[in-house]
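Run: sequence + flavin mononucleotide -> complex structure.
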Amino acid sequence: MSTAGAPPFDSKEFRSLFGHLPTGVVVITGLSTSGEPLGITIGSFASISLDPPLAGFFVGRSSRTWPLIAERGSFTANILGSAQSDLCWKFAKDNNEESRFSGLDFGVSTNGSPVLPDVVATIDCTLDSTRSIGDHDLVVGMVTDFRVRNSTQPSMVFYRGKTGDARIES
Ligand SMILES: Cc1cc2nc3c(=O)[nH]c(=O)nc-3n(C[C@H](O)[C@H](O)[C@H](O)COP(=O)(O)O)c2cc1C
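>> structure
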């Protein structure tokens, strides 16, 4: 029998189980208050409400980048294409010294956040609210603009630790 309050399985198994549930992949981009471009790879991004238009994601409270983006109060979700696994891993790695944007020719969205090259679509948000849940924060954004930029490529799917392709035969 498990101890009260403790999970009945280990966190490795929990992660591995959820690896069986495919997700899309976005890079949440924004700027620090001093204008430095910032970004994090996120698989939990989803639409939340149509009226008002809200979208959000769950971010670990150990994230170093999210608090810097949140301080400015706006962000952009960049939906990755299936051929963009380099961007997926680049924005998930701790590079310490080097900016995740080094060598990237990025654009600017209507709210000033970086737009990564050749992404499928972007969704601009202003920060609506955050709520602490377990060891993550639920971040809710008010959608202020959205653009399909490159719909000829299939979107990325993340499944069992690997990136793949969201094409569905009709
Ligand atoms: C496909 C994929 C999906 C991810 N999804 C999330 C997520 O939804 N929430 C989260 O907090 N981290 C997620 N991560 C992990 C972060 O990208 C990673 O911890 C990153 O180093 C955080 O950077 P930071 O400490 O600079 O904020 C994901 C990573 C990958 C590769």
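>> summary
The first strand starts at residue 23 and ends at 24. The longest helix spans residues 11-18.
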